[in-house]
Amino acid sequence: MSTLQTHLDPDETNTNEINPLVPRSIDLPTILPADGHLDPAIGDIAKIFAAPADPADWPAWRDGLQTWRDSARERLDYSGAIYELDHSRWTRACYSVSLTWLFDERLFDHATQQFTVDAFLESTGDHGGFDGIVLWHAYPIIGIDDRNQFDFYRDVPGLAEVIAELQTRGLKVFIDYNPWDTGTRRAAHDDPEELALIVGELGVDGVFLDTMKEGDAGLIAALLNADPPQVLEGESRVPNQRIEDHQLSWAQWFADSDAPGVMRAHWYERRHMMHSTRRWNHDHSAELQSAWMNGTGMLVWDAVFGVWVGWNERDKGTLRRMLRVQRALNPVLVDGEWTPLTDARPEALAAGVYASRYELGDLTLWTVINRTTTDYVGPVLEQDALHGLLVDVTTGSPLVDGTTTVPARGVTGILAVRGSSPEWLANLLAAAAADSERSGADSDATFPAREAHRVEVVPSESTTRPGDAIVVAAGARVLPVAHRRRESGMYQGAPYQEEWKPLPPRLHDARHETIAVTLGDVAVARREVTVGEFIEFLMTSGYTPVHSNRFFTADVASRPDAPATLLGLTDARAYAAWAGARLPTEFEWQVAAADPGFHRSTPMVWNWTESEHSDGVTRFVMLKGGSDHQSLGSDWYVDGGPKAADFSLKLLLAGLGVERSSNIGFRLAWDLERTHD
């Protein structure tokens, strides 16, 4: 793992005084001296070079940018050869990437246990379509048992076929690598070799380096020499030294200057694609504008590790307009002459409107943004900059004397064509015009909230309980609930909103709250269902667990009194229905656990509960009780060890048997009054 990933990394510095709504010093744009000379310890890792506030200083600033780039490339003996390799040329046009949970309900139907690629693409099409997708798979559920990050890919039946289907639809597919996964079972090979094997097994195009700005030499070599060879994308602030072999990176936790600055890594290498993201934002206009002015891309992450952070209509409309232009004019953006902050009229600048120019052959594109909350209507560019056919490529409208509308917190693209128009221009303008006719949606910045709803509890078929079951009396209660604050949140909403990078003590801290609940008359079993009891159920009922033969092992059968594990929520429900019972909710479990006769098995395992929730994108379930197992070595692992009765664990619900764990069992509950026919 890179030496930049040590505890001294300034991106990870912990402070109790940090204001989460204010960018850290490391996130702020870097001031580039006018002569372009900057200490490499700063310049090689800067996020954005700030633009001067005074337009009179911009020409000297642009000269300084050129000087800095030339000297940095010479000092590092930069070649850029990797960007010309056949397997990686696509990265320069990979403008929009989705970060998607493998079992996102848009991509995976939990009822049929099938992947639904076309449904996913249709439901996310209003973002303008994706060029790539990162399939995240293990975090935040890894650590529930000893399975490692590679197991969580390999245990998914048919995953290679799903990846091939995404690729057939035009998407490049990334898997993610978690370097912090050191506390689960070790794979047969070291991580670089194992990664090289799995990318070949799955046939993916790239690897996202979770928590890493760069891979080390062994990892880089293994992935570049894999079959197929891979591209690498680092998470934030890839240093100049690694732009040589990391073709993409995140522009994460980046604060821009008022006059839009220049992203250091992309200025250093125009073919290096960056994806802007602020994962907890409800407002993405700042990221979109930075990407538009720099000719770079966006990461769409609307469900962050199981919590909904969806994009508003205004920002989705902005992204669609950007992507149409970026894809059509990719050669201009990558190979053309880029002149940051130029040609805008004084009245436009005074109104908070900025422009940059990209020029290649007969085509000149100005990327234009409006920093204010009021539409700007009027001429944008200096008269002497206007030449040839002028069109607004973001709305599909012709321009007269450069007059157009730059939407509030939005973007505009102005294209000048000298000579004959390219063949693709008519289709681009038609698509832009059709999109611009969307009634009112493009100005709606309302957050599209989702609420996670509890899946309806099916009452038990029988009201007869075992004599030793624990009776939970009906009534209203206010129950304490403890949990560890993780990025996956709890019942509703994201744990952070419009915040910069969450750090301890606000990340992974112990949280306590109270929840008012009303319970019915119910009895909860004193102990978990055992292996022997579940085997009897299988032999008697004819039930066959889908996508799993893991339960039938000699080791399991030899321990008939041990808790039945390696069973999914569906399996537990099937047993409960056969027994005339159901699973207890997390609150019924918690109240019953206060009884002195409540028994925990040996080994101790988490318990499934009848507390499944869905917000239409992510399904999750609450687990209770803790387990003897605990994965050590990283705070990113799911909680382990024995837990007090009030502790609840939100577990994202995987499918296809991946949700089955050796450390999750279940017990039964009975409704004591019949509530159904």
TrEMBL record:
InterPro entries: CTDL_fold, Sulfatase_Mod_Factor_Kinase, SUMF_dom, SUMF_sf. Gene3D superfamilies: paralog of FGE (formylglycine-generating enzyme) (3.90.1580.10). Transmembrane segments: none annotated. It comes from Leifsonia kafniensis. Residues 517-611 form the Sulfatase-modifying factor enzyme-like domain. Pfam families: FGE-sulfatase (PF03781). This is Sulfatase-modifying factor enzyme-like domain-containing protein. Residues 1-21 are annotated as: Disordered. It comes from the Bacteria.
